[in-house]
């Protein structure tokens, strides 16, 4: 799949987003290989009702200062699309997405001295224009964090 964005936060963390249209001949499992030893979390989220020719309408990401709130930036969207907000933080933490977002996945790497967590939440776009920014709070405290917004084009 094609990379849709990589948002670094200094040397603390990088959040990469990929998109792929799944077909009938998908493998039974996927393997991710990192270029060096590091802590990582991987989230795989599947959506239906999305265009299979041009699934991503728009995307943007931003690195945020150390905070207990993760922000994903505003992007352009069209009525009927799906806005997906992706949140990452440099600590072991749960996420509480803002009202109106439905959290789909949350994953944490909590072993060793380095911790990272990620969350994906979404909502249907009901008006053509700009959606976001979106936020999620991390109740376990402040840390360097990154957020990205991906708008999936309706089929």
**pLDDT < 50 stretches:** 1-5
Instruction: Using the alpha-carbon principal axes, give the shape.
Output: globular
What structural class should be given to the helix and strand makeup?
A: mainly beta
List the total number of helices: 0
Number of strands: 12
Q: Whole-number radius of gyration? A: 15 Å
Largest sheet, if any?
5 strands, antiparallel
Which percent band covers the strand fraction?
over 45%
Q: How would you state the average pLDDT, rounded?
A: 88
Helix content: under 10%
Strand order of the largest sheet: 3-12-6-9-8
- Note the run of SSEs as H and E: EEEEEEEEEEEE
The separation of the N and C termini measures 19 Å
Characterization of the model:
The chain has 155 residues and is mostly beta strands. The chain has no helices and twelve strands. The chain has strands at residues 2-9, 13-19, 56-67, 69-72, 75-77, 82-89, 96-97, 102-109, 116-124, 129-131, 134-137, 143-152. The two termini are 19 Å apart.
